[in-house]
Each structure stands twice: as structure tokens, then as C-alpha cells.
Specification:
The protein is α+β, with helices and mostly antiparallel strands. It is built from four helices and 14 strands. The chain has two domains: 122 residues, Protein Yojf, Chain: A; 104 residues, Trna Endonuclease, Chain: A, domain 1 (3-Layer(aba) Sandwich). The strands form two sheets. Strands 1, 2, 3, 4, 5, 6, 7, 8 and 9 form a nine-stranded antiparallel sheet that branches. The chain has a five-stranded mixed sheet with strand order 10-11-12-13-14, with helices on both faces. The radius of gyration is 28 Å and the shape is elongated. The chain starts with a strand and ends in a 16-residue tail after the last strand.
Length: 257
């Protein structure tokens, strides 16, 4: 049954259109700088840096406001096909199929999406000028430790960030209250066994010139499983469970009083 939705605040949709009905919908409601979402059973051929054919299946096709084209299958996070912004798009009906052709010049590539059945189509336009603010990264924890080294232990002094060694970059290097060198490896979430081996290599790099030198290695993470703690003890390394998430302030919020 063909159900055509009436436009509502710049939004229009149609459910179960025929192929000719799908073409009529795009001609009437889809315009540049609008979003078009199509859900249906389609076949996808791609030509570009390689060639591919995706057999019939029910998928979600999204044309964004900058003419980025994304094709999603019902599962998985990544799109199965996509084309970058400024893609040129044509719609037509051929052999009782609704066809969507897309073209992109740089890189030179094209897709032909053939629908034998369309379940739903929707157009709208969105406003979004916000920029994402990422918190809880390793750098946030590193900066907090540099600001207040006593969150690791009293008397700790941080003298170097990202100290280079043969095995890689040490997150933090400093000295404890007794003047013993301290290497701190920071992880933003769950500490793992590879992190232990990484810290051990850093300690060995610093001790390379004097294997008897006392060097402390501390693995810092919000969560450290018992198996990781045991391995650290076996290698005479240390740990500190510490995590910190930078507060994201919403400037739009106002005080009530």
C-alpha cells in the first residue's frame, strides 16, 4: 500500500512506493542541501579505484546535505559503500526498477544503485554547527598528572613529557621523593598485558647503560585487572588506578539563581 506522507516542517516521507512513485517523490521533495534516506532492496555496482558488485539485499542509502552518499547494511558500523561530498546524483526508472546513479570526479568513481523494492523514503534538512569535544583521552590523564603529580604519589616530580626511548615514547618521566627515576605509562581505559610489556621495555631502555640502576615503572589506568597487576609484580613494576575525565562545560547553561 502506497502511503504518501504530507510535508511537516521541511520533512516529507513515503512508505512502500512503487518504483515510479519513488521517482515522483524524489522529483517533488528532494532538493540540493537536503537529506534523502532510502530503505529498500537494492543491487549496487561500483566502478572506481576497483570494481565491485553487491548483490540484492535490504539496505539504508543516505544522501547527506553536502551530497555525501553512504550505504549501510542492516549490521556493522562501517558503510559497505560510500562516496565523498559533492557527488552528482541522478534518479530514473528503468525496466520497472528505481535507479540511483552517483558520480564523483576526484577520485573518479561511480555507483549504480538499483532498487527492486523501496520500503521507505524521507527527505528533510538539519542544522548542526556544533563541534565535537572529546574528553577522557590519555592526554587528559597525562595533563592532570603533570598538574598534580601527587595523584600518583606524594613527592613525585615530573620533569619530562613524551621522553623518547628505543622502544617508543614514554608518557611521563620524573623522580620520586628519594630521587629515583620514575617512568609512568598512561592508559585511558582498561590496562592490558601488552601495556605491561610496553612499560617493561621502557624501563629496560633507560637501564641499558646501567642494568643495576634502580628505575621505577608505574602503569597508570582507571581499571587494572588482577591478572595485569600480578604480571606487573612479577616484573617488579608498579601500578596506580587513576582516571580523570575533563569536564565539558555547556556554555548555554545558565544559573537558576
Amino acid at each position: 500500500m502506497n502511503k504518501l506522507g504530507k510535508p511537516c516542517m521541511d520533512m516529507a516521507y513515503v512508505i512502500d512506493p512503487s518504483c515510479s512513485g519513488a521517482l515522483d517523490f524524489t522529483n517533488k521533495h528532494y532538493k540540493p542541501k537536503k537529506i534523502l534516506i532510502i530503505i529498500g532492496d537494492c543491487l549496487i555496482g561500483y566502478k572506481g579505484r576497483a570494481k565491485s558488485l553487491l548483490e540484492w539485499g535490504e539496505r539504508i542509502v543516505i544522501i547527506k546535505q553536502d551530497n555525501t552518499v553512504i550505504v549501510h547494511q542492516p549490521v556493522m558500523r562501517e558503510p559497505v559503500n560510500w562516496q565523498a561530498s559533492d557527488t552528482k546524483i541522478d534518479f530514473y526508472v528503468e525496466n520497472e526498477k528505481f535507479i540511483m546513479n552517483t558520480y564523483h570526479k576526484h577520485p573518479n568513481e561511480s555507483m549504480k544503485i538499483t532498487f527492486r523494492n523501496v520500503k521507505m523514503m524521507m527527505t528533510t534538512s538539519l542544522k548542526d554547527n556544533a563541534k565535537i569535544i572529546v574528553s577522557g583521552m590519555e592526554t587528559d590523564i597525562v595533563e592532570k598528572i603533570m598538574e598534580k603529580p601527587n595523584v600518583i604519589e606524594e613527592g613525585l616530580r615530573i620533569t619530562k613529557r613524551e621522553k623518547k626511548t628505543k622502544s617508543g615514547m614514554i608518557d611521563l618521566f620524573g623522580y620520586d621523593k628519594n630521587g629515583v627515576p620514575v617512568i609512568i605509562e598512561v592508559k585511558r581505559s582498561l590496562a592490558t598485558i601488552p601495556a605491561v610489556h610496553q612499560l617493561r621495555m621502557y624501563v629496560n631502555d633507560i637501564k641499558r647503560k646501567n642494568k643495576k640502576a634502580k628505575i621505577r615503572g608505574i602503569l597508570c589506568a582507571p581499571r587494572i585487572p588482577e591478572i595485569v597487576k600480578n604480571l606487573l609484580r612479577d616484573y617488579e613494576l608498579e601500578y596506580k588506578e587513576f582516571g580523570w575525565v575533563k569536564e565539558i562545560v555547556d556554555k548555554r547553561q545558565r544559573k537558576l539563581f
